[in-house]
């Protein structure tokens, strides 16, 4: 599950220009706005040469992690929003939850890679820090120099909701490669373990599965490598509302086909069949890795195996699940799973994505359609 992230040194946090920073602080019931049209005695420079210039707050190209702070250490849940322009150089953004000059989170734009990044800085030097998440820029936003970009973070408890420019679709991704523990997964049924860099299920009973993610996830793509080690049926779960309410798309070895079912409450094996598809350009077999992919769009599910489109099935019963977690699954089968990936283009109103506590592997930026 641990993902190696190679990060360039924050060589020069250059020419940050911010204006219109709004802080909405529930605890203090208010909004504060800095438009930098006049003095800013309330800002405290931690590092760098900062000045007000032409109605913006400006820092010249300088060293690593140059920043200026506002507000109080005790602010806990709030929203911070700013317009940011990188005049020269590659990395700039907004700071939040700053406990001291060296202890804070920063959400910033990375021009050369066209990504957004989230880091936690710590004592030891301006560049002492740990990576929390990296995310591709949303499709419609090109992170570039000399361009104003709206940045916003909604901070609540240990969850940060990260936004980039208003009215742009979301693009987020999470991958689990099971190199470490799978402690963010929740087994619903069955005997699960991480072995040899894969997530394994021992041969057991019916509809054994383990879940990941948020019950609020709506349309997304879930992918996984699936191997049936002993037994006939295994696959991927999506739109899981609870341990017993979910869809599963699975491989059926003896019949050389794939099947889609909707599970429901009552028992592990309580379920309705949505449809089945004869394997298209694939032979379903034991002991081989299959790449399974499900693309969800409303009640329509597009199904792929090993890059071959198997077909499309829809749940037209009206009893379907519009949102839910992802997962992996098998039925009276020993199976191995790897490289589970969830990509959401438009997860609206869902929960949230970036949990800062030691979730180095978790990469999920949540960009809402509206500010
Ligand atoms: C992002 O938002 C800013 C400010 O609203 C706008 O000027 C800019 O064109 C937007 N950039 C992109 C790439 O959408
Ligand atoms: C901040 O948000 C967290 C999570 O929702 C909550 O547990 C905590 O009580 C909030 N703090 C305040 C001061 O409201
Ligand atoms: C099977 O694969 C062949 C070769 O890639 C392709 O031409 C054909 O259209 C595929 N068949 C189906 C049903 O997808
Ligand atoms: C499984 O189905 C595919 C596609 O219909 C077919 O090409 C293949 O020969 C079948 N395999 C077996 C073992 O029947």
Automatic annotation (TrEMBL):
SUPFAM superfamilies: Concanavalin A-like lectins/glucanases. The keyword Magnesium does not apply. Residues 34-166, 178-342 form the 3-keto-alpha-glucoside-1,2-lyase/3-keto-2-hydroxy-glucal hydratase domain. Residues 1-24 form the signal peptide. It holds the Pfam family 3keto-disac_hyd. Keywords: Signal. This is 3-keto-alpha-glucoside-1,2-lyase/3-keto-2-hydroxy-glucal hydratase domain-containing protein.
């Amino acid at each position: 599950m641990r993902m190696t992230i190679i990060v360039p040194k924050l060589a020069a946090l250059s020419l940050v220009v911010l204006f219109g920073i709004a802080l909405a602080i529930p605890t203090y019931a208010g909004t504060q706005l800095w438009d930098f049209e006049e003095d800013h005695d309330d800002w405290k420079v931690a590092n760098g040469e900062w000045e007000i210039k032409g109605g913006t707050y400006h820092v010249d190209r300088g060293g690593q992690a140059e920043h200026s702070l506002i507000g109080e250490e005790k602010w806990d849940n709030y929203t911070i929003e700013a317009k940011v322009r990188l005049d020269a150089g590659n990395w700039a953004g907004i700071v939040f939850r700053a406990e001291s000059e060296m202890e804070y989170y920063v959400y910033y734009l990375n021009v050369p890679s066209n990504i957004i990044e989230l880091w936690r800085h710590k004592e030891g030097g301006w560049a002492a820090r740990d990576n929390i998440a990296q995310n591709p820029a949303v499709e419609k936003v090109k992170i570039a120099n000399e361009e104003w970009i709206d940045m916003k973070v909604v901070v609540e408890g240990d969850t940060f909701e990260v936004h980039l420019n208003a009215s742009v679709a979301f693009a987020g991704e999470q991958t689990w490669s099971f190199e470490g523990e799978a402690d963010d997964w929740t087994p619903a049924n069955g005997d699960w373990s991480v072995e040899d860099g894969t997530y394994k299920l021992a041969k057991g009973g019916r509809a054994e599965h383990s879940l990941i993610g948020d019950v609020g996830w709506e349309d997304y793509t879930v992918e996984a490598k699936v191997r049936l080690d002993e037994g006939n049926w295994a696959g991927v779960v999506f739109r899981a509302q609870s341990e017993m309410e979910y869809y599963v798309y699975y491989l059926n070895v003896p019949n050389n086909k794939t099947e889609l079912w909707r599970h429901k409450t009552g028992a592990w094996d309580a379920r309705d069949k949505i449809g089945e598809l004869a394997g298209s350009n694939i032979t379903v077999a034991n002991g081989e890795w299959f790449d399974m992919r499900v693309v969800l769009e409303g009640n329509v599910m597009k199904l792929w195996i090993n890059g071959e489109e198997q077909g499309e099935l829809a749940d037209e019963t009206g009893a379907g699940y519009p949102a839910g977690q992802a997962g992996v699954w098998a039925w009276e089968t020993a199976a191995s799973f790897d490289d589970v990936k969830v990509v959401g283009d438009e997860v609206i109103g869902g929960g949230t994505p970036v949990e800062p506590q030691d979730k180095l592997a978790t990469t999920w930026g949540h960009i809402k359609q509206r500010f």
